[in-house]
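Appendix C: a fully annotated inverse folding record. The material below is reproduced so that readers can follow the format used throughout the book. The structure is listed first as tokens, followed by the designed sequence.
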């Protein structure tokens, strides 16, 4: 159990590759595991943690406000998207090959009774809910507008 927890920490938090973890375990603990063995351990752990993962999603969806965003994430040289859906207490991460509304609908459903705060990316438009653009993006748009049209600035 300790080795599994350490491996999960090294892989998820420290972002060490499975071959790097294999070398680390062999160097510091004389623990000889193959990368496929480490991978099987992480798959087993993911299956054990699956109910908790679903609880986290339900906690996020149960909030009155959800902050959502996505960022590019390289998986074996291919761009995937790491989505985050969070409220003030909880965060839910979802990796996906797609950056589309299907992902948002798959995670949140087609209707959300609270406020969805995003950067305005079109993928969030399909879900039925109250939407708000995050303040950082609003301020960025205002700055760009002021730079593009200085004649409209209030003096």
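Designed amino acids, in order:
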């Amino acid at each position: 159990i300790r080795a599994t927890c350490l491996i999960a920490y090294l892989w998820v938090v420290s972002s060490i590759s499975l071959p790097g973890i294999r070398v680390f375990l062999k160097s510091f603990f004389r623990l000889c595991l193959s990368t496929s063995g480490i991978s099987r351990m992480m798959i087993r752990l993911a299956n054990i943690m699956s109910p908790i993962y679903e609880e986290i999603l339900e906690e996020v969806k149960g909030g009155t406000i959800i902050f959502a965003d996505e960022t590019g994430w390289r998986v074996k040289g291919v761009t995937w998207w790491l989505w985050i859906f969070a409220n003030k207490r909880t965060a839910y991460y979802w990796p996906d090959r797609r950056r589309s509304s299907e992902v948002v609908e798959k995670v949140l459903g087609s209707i959300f009774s609270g406020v969805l705060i995003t950067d305005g990316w079109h993928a969030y438009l399909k879900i039925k809910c109250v939407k708000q653009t995050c303040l950082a993006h609003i301020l960025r748009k205002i700055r760009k507008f002021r730079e593009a049209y200085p004649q409209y600035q209030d003096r």
